[in-house]
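Lab notes, practical 5.
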Amino acid sequence: MSMKFAVAFAATLGAVVVMSQTAEARPEMVGIHADNYEPGTIVVKTNERRLYLILDSGHAMRYPVGVGKSGKQWAGTTRIDGKYRNPAWSPPAEVKRDKPSIPNVIAGGSPHNPMGVAAMTLAGGEYAIHGTNVPGSVGGFVSYGCIRMLNTDITDLYSRVSVGTTVVVTR
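Output from the prediction step:
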């Protein structure tokens, strides 16, 4: 696993969560006007705290997500460049500065690992779409820029997409 994988993943333990209710694992088939996106594209709508997997021009699978907290959000188009089950996590420099007591590496499978059961790294940056061992954080503005999903939802999405999948993040 590369050092690139170790950077800027999911926010910290003990993050403040801003949301109205705890998200429930349940990818939903929804109607969507998606003429601008090819089937298979992942679209993250930060303001909605939802991730959409486009199925065709009128349908998508929708998942609740946690997104970047204030000052940590981003928007743009990228691709999935890696897929990992039970990944180890190394806090990026910014997280380590904010929380110096965090270990340098947290083993995959540890209940303290913020990556959860799976992660899909995003090209050109320090971010990932990943699970979480803090399910109450999904639905909030909680991360350092990563897209955080419930473990059951990341497992479902992981099985539906491949390396090279386009990811569009909007605010």
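Observations recorded by the TA: Residues 151-160 form the longest helix (10 residues). Confidence is low (pLDDT under 50) at residues 1-21.
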